[in-house]
Design a protein that fits this description.
By secondary structure, the protein is of the alpha/beta class. The protein has four domains: about 90 residues, Rossmann fold (3-Layer(aba) Sandwich), CATH 3.40.50.11270; about 90 residues, Cobalt-precorrin-4 Transmethylase, domain 1, CATH 3.40.1010; about 100 residues, 3-Layer(aba) Sandwich (Cobalt-precorrin-4 Transmethylase, domain 1), CATH 3.40.1010.20; about 270 residues, Farnesyl Diphosphate Synthase, CATH 1.10.600. It contains 27 helices and twelve strands. It has a four-stranded parallel sheet with strand order 1-12-10-11, with helices on both faces. The protein has a four-stranded parallel sheet with strand order 3-2-4-5, with helices on both faces. Strands 7-6-8-9 form a four-stranded parallel sheet, sandwiched between helices. Helix 7 links the parallel strand 8 and strand 9. Helix 23 packs antiparallel against helix 25. The longest helix has about 30 residues. The chain binds iron/sulfur cluster. Iron/sulfur cluster (SF4) binds next to helix 1, helix 4 and helix 8.
């Protein structure tokens, strides 16, 4: 019994770029923001944009103000000029692959060539392309129409980027025979073809295929059709509520894919619901994953991880009394994480819909848990003396004020009101807070030499930085919607991944420094396992960009337990 998620499921490059551009504009600008026509054919994304007050205009007014975003399909050049003339600031989010076709048409149209576009004349991309043909554009959707066109002295032939490759091959073959002087360009986007090939293969090796995406989205409909053509049962749904579990029956292997305009949160939600349904059929497995989910959602696993990291840091520091420090770290992390989750329900609705509904449902109890653990941690800190208590209390206050408007406008400009608004602050502050509570405070309290205190601090901070930044990469789409300024939003996914890897390599070398320079002993070598394990998980993510599911998250959050294991072996 398994669920496979297509690697190509979800936004294509052009759609992701357009959605990112409109969200970035909305998060940065104070002016009204519009899209010219629907940004993409997906009702949930359009609803989300409206909730962020990004509205749509379908006609160009004589006068306007604000920002208008041109969608990935592109528009005729005269529309772009008219928008600017009306007074809008125009952001052109036309997909670079569509821009390439526009440039080809424009270049040849200037020389007087006729343009033959293979595609539906009503499709927005084709409407935009025709605008570059200087009145000499022709669209065709069949071989008969091609044969019926006049014989042009000069013509350029292009295809709408989402056209069928086999059909375009026929067109090219016909032209080579009947009009060899025509200039023909390969303009079909590989993204559509890859997606269709993958669903064809998945359909052959699975009992059922679920295709997720807007009912108006042509590429999603075509995806469902390709899957059905293989003879495997395939359903096209717009969201998880439409899944017919009775029709799935005793299906064992299900493949899930999605159109180019389907956002990750809808795909995640669908996977989650199908997964839950399959597990209900196996009660033991269902109960086990239920426990796992509970540990993740309540952050109990992460809190135990913080305790383990404290034991690990203690190895580098040369041992000493650690139980009380481990308990303080566990209580502090539990309190802060739970509190933070109760305040991030909005972004979780997109990133982790199951956690968002868990916090909506049990928010009151979870706040009590955060309060009790926070107070218990502070009390234990107090037993270690005023300095320990003071630092812990300051960190708690900082954590609690993270989401509050505490930065005066005259200091920060209009955009930054909360610590949370400072770009990249979350990743750095969480890592430092963990580093202080799991290694620095115990080191100072226990009189560890500064050198070893520093090594253990950077080891713990590095690991937590990597974990937080990686979780942020998984959540980048929802965070952008919620207007969060996380590291991957600031640097981009690739650069963030590189930073994480360097940090983890550094963290793997630090325990060895501890061994060479101080009292860490042979067990320090085992501590290198934690960053190495994380590097392995990241490698697997890069090779097979899967969606974050509970088992995977469980593995990542469990990395810190390895530090506890190393400590237990000393
Ligand atoms: S399908 Fe291809 S051409 Fe069309 S928007 Fe996506 S990446 Fe661009």
């Amino acid at each position: 019994m398994k669920i496979s998620i297509a690697k190509t499921a979800g936004f294509c490059m052009g759609v992701r770029r357009a959605v990112d551009m409109v969200l970035d504009a909305s998060n940065l600008a104070d002016e009204p923001i519009f899209t010219y026509g629907p940004l993409i054919h997906n009702p949930q994304v359009l609803e989300m944009l409206e909730s962020k007050e990004i509205f749509r205009i379908d006609t160009i007014p004589e006068k306007g103000e604000g920002i208008v975003l041109i969608r990935a399909h592109g528009v005729p050049p005269e529309d772009e000029q008219a928008l600017a003339k009306a007074g809008f600031t125009v952001i052109n989010a036309t997909c670079p692959r569509v821009v390439r076709v526009q440039v080809i048409i424009n270049k040849f149209a200037k020389k007087g060539y006729a343009t033959i576009i293979i595609g539906d004349k009503k499709h927005p991309e084709v409407v935009g392309l025709l605008g570059y043909a200087r009145g000499k554009g022709h669209t065709i959707t069949s071989m008969d129409q091609l044969a019926g066109l006049p014989a042009f002295e000069n013509a350029v032939v292009v295809a709408q980027t989402t056209q069928n490759t086999e059909f375009y091959q026929e067109i090219k073959d016909w032209c080579r025979v009947h009009a060899p002087h025509y200039e023909i360009f390969d303009t079909i986007c590989g993204s559509t073809e890859k997606r269709q090939n993958e669903v064809r293969e998945l359909a052959k090796s699975h009992d059922a295929v679920i295709v997720v995406g807007g009912k108006q989205s042509g590429n999603t409909r075509r995806l469902a059709q390709v899957a059905q053509e293989t003879g495997t049962s395939a359903t096209h749904i717009e969201d998880a509520e439409e899944i017919d579990y009775q029709a799935l029956g005793s299906t064992q292997n299900i493949a899930i894919t999605a159109g180019a305009s389907t956002p990750n949160w809808i795909i995640k939600d669908t996977c989650l619901k199908v997964d839950q349904n399959l597990k209900r059929r196996r009660p033991v497995m269902g109960r086990l994953t239920g426990v796992l989910d509970f540990l993740l959602k309540t952050n109990l696993l992460l809190a135990v991880g913080a305790a383990c990291l404290t034991y690990g840091a203690a190895i580098i520091q040369g041992g000493g009394q650690t139980h009380v420090y481990a308990a303080i770290a566990m209580l502090y992390v539990l309190s802060m994480q739970v509190m933070n989750n109760t305040m991030t329900i909005k972004s979780d609705t997109y990133n982790k819909p199951d956690r968002a509904s868990f916090y909506k449902r049990y928010g009151r109890y979870l706040k009590v848990l955060a309060l009790i653990s926070g107070c218990a941690g502070l009390y234990l800190g107090y037993t270690r003396g005023w300095v320990f208590f003071g630092v812990l209390a300051a960190m708690t206050l900082l954590g609690l004020s993270y989401n509050m408007n505490i930065i005066p406008a005259f200091l920060s400009g209009r955009r930054i009101h909360r610590i949370k608004d400072v770009p990249g602050s979350k990743t750095v502050l969480i890592a430092m807070a963990w580093g202080i509570v799991t290694s620095l405070l115990p080191a100072v309290d226990g009189g560890t030499p500064w050198g070893m205190a520093g090594v253990s601090f950077f080891y713990a901070t590095g690991l937590v930085f990597a974990r937080t930044a990686f979780v942020d990469i998984l959540a980048v789409q929802g965070d952008r919607i919620a207007g969060k300024e996380t590291l991957p939003i600031l640097l981009g996914k690739k650069k963030s991944m590189r930073v994480i890897q360097y940090v983890l390599i550094g963290s793997a070398l630090l325990p060895l420094c501890g061994f060479l320079l101080g009292p860490a002993g042979n067990m320090a070598f085992w501590l290198a396992l934690v960053p190495l394990f994380m590097l392995l998980l990241i490698k697997s993510y890069k090779e097979d960009s899967f969606l974050s599911g509970s088992p995977y998250e469980f593995l990542f959050e469990s990395s810190f337990l390895l530090a506890g294991l190393a400590a237990a072996m000393t």
